[in-house]
# Entry
Amino acid sequence: MPSINLGLKKQRDPTVNKKKYQFIYQDKRWRRIRNLKFKNDPLCERCLENNRVHATEEIHHIIPFQTGKTEEEVQFLAFNYDNLQSLCIDCHKIVENLIRNKR
# Structure
């Protein structure tokens, strides 16, 4: 039976992207830069902007490295210290939802 397009958005499998780029999180450069960011910014940067204090629990890529169009861009975004943000879990969820809703 033919399918009818009802204007519904096709759901993407989020695990596909995660599997494709999982090597980044295994790289010693990522572990080193992540640890440095934790050390330098132990408090959630987003909370501090809003006069709250919470410990950093996640290191977030401001510009997702998966958006890189070439392998060089992916590597630059993944391992660029200035592209990282220290966040608590709650702020990380908020930021990720904002990014997801923009797509």
